[in-house]
Design goal:
Largest sheet: none
Number of helices: 16
Oligomer: single chain
Distance between the termini: 52 Å
Structural class: mainly alpha
Order of helices and strands: HHHHHHHHHHHHHHHH
Helix content: over 70%
Number of domains: 3
Shape: globular
Radius of gyration: 24 Å
Strand content: under 5%
């Protein structure tokens, strides 16, 4: 589509025909080639027109089919998460360790598949097969084990489910990088709404339990086992429903939060590095501190990706783009410190599943950050658009998927299950 757009950029009739033939493909293709054709008068017209299509207007009217799909998806997920209580499974914690991620994403995939009308038999078979393979695989792994490789499978399996959900979300269109960008932006919006819903739900839970206790009725155990658990796994589905049907809320809220958080995270990261330099903390021998250090690195990386995806939805903001450039540099410094500690521990204590997993993720993040720094440099000091940074993120996503697949299926083979 993008080649056709470039070829007929000065032919208004042909462009209109291309748009009417496949609106989504036209929009995606246009965004990819806009930097090459932006000098054309027609390109400016189409930019305004396509932006207007995405512009949040009035709130979408709620209709009964949407509500039915939402409730059904929540109920299915709620029943699945209650399996240990329904069938009196003696070790529910083991069940949840293995299956919680699969159950949560099954609800999300069911909702997205239904609302997007993904009814093609071939794709439905792919989705179902992936679910069955992962469910059988994880439940065949040892339940009681001290194996680090098995625990890493449990940690990475939800990430693999997230990748599967992403494939469904982008309608299995692996070539369309714009859809990958939309998925990244959706995840940022989802995180914000889930946090707001969780806070609201926590307040409601406290009030409800307190009111019943005031009249001498204790409902805490019943409420936690039936309402809170089911509500918790339904939160992502409800948040997705809001994103799809009430875009006015997320389109205004997410960029504001991104613009507020990125300077705060930058300030925190700088202060942390200064504190680390003057403190006597030994990063190389303290395993727990190194773990916290890497969790912080992942969090900062997530903020950078989220902020880039939201910054691109508004007008060019020089200050925020500069903040993201500096934050990426600071994050590279943090990553290099973490990598030096990991290599030290590898040389001193040898190779283990945990050390290899952390090493692989840190190297992946470092490569991603370097590419982002190059693009953000061009955005800030040369003629380039923030959209190019988003495309870099989208292109890099398959590398994370490859690494996750290796950890989930390769680690138990290389390191064993004991």
């Amino acid at each position: 589509m993008k080649n056709k757009i470039k070829e007929h950029i000065n032919d208004p009739e042909k462009l209109e025909q291309l748009f009417n033939d496949d609106k989504n493909a036209f929009e995606s293709g246009f965004e990819e080639v806009y930097s090459e054709i932006e000098k054309s008068e027609l390109s400016e017209y189409w930019k305004i027109r396509l932006d207007y299509r995405k512009k949040p207007g009035t709130i979408t009217k709620t209709n009964l089919p949407d509500i039915f799909i939402l409730i059904t998806s929540c109920l299915v997920t709620g029943v699945l998460i209650k399996i240990p209580f329904i069938f009196n499974i003696p070790t529910p914690e083991v069940f949840y360790t293995k299956n919680a991620g699969i159950i949560v994403f099954s609800g999300l995939i069911l909702y997205i598949t239904w609302t997007n009308k993904v009814f093609e038999l071939k794709r439905l078979i792919y989705i179902l097969a992936a679910f069955l393979i992962l469910t059988i695989y994880v439940n065949l792994l040892p339940s009681v084990t001290d194996s680090d490789s098995i625990y890493l499978v449990y940690i990475h399996l939800p990430l693999l489910m997230w990748c599967l959900y992403g494939l469904v979300f982008i309608d299995f269109n692996l070539k369309d990088k714009i859809k990958r960008i939309e998925f990244i932006r959706y995840n940022g919006d989802l995180a914000i709404l889930m946090a707001l819903i969780a806070i609201t739900g926590g307040i409601l839970t406290g009030i409800t339990i307190g009111l019943f206790e005031a009249i001498g009725i204790s409902i805490e155990n019943f409420y936690m086992e039936n309402v809170v658990i089911v509500g918790a796994v339904s939160v992502p589905i409800v948040a997705t429903y809001i994103i799809k049907n009430y875009t006015t809320l997320t389109n205004k809220l997410a960029p504001i939060i991104a613009n507020i958080f990125s300077p705060l995270v930058l300030l925190t990261a700088v202060i942390f590095l200064i504190a680390l330099a003057i403190s006597e903390k030994d990063l190389y021998s303290d395993r727990e501190f190194l773990l916290i250090f890497n969790i912080m690195l992942l969090g900062v990386m997530a903020v950078i990706v989220f902020s880039i995806s939201e910054t691109s939805t508004v007008r060019k903001q020089k200050f925020n783009e500069l903040i993201l450039f500096i934050l990426s540099i600071i994050t590279v410094i943090i990553d290099l410190i973490a990598l030096s500690a990991i290599f030290y521990r590898l040389g001193t204590f040898g190779l283990t599943p945990n050390r290899l997993a952390v090493l692989g993720s840190n190297i992946l993040i470092l490569g991603n950050l370097v590419l982002l720094i190059i693009d953000l440099y061009k955005v800030n000091f040369k003629i380039s658009r923030i959209r190019e940074v988003e495309l870099t993120i989208a292109k890099y996503l398959p590398l994370y998927l490859i690494w996750i697949l290796f950890v989930v299926f390769g680690f138990p083979l290389f390191f064993g299950m004991k």
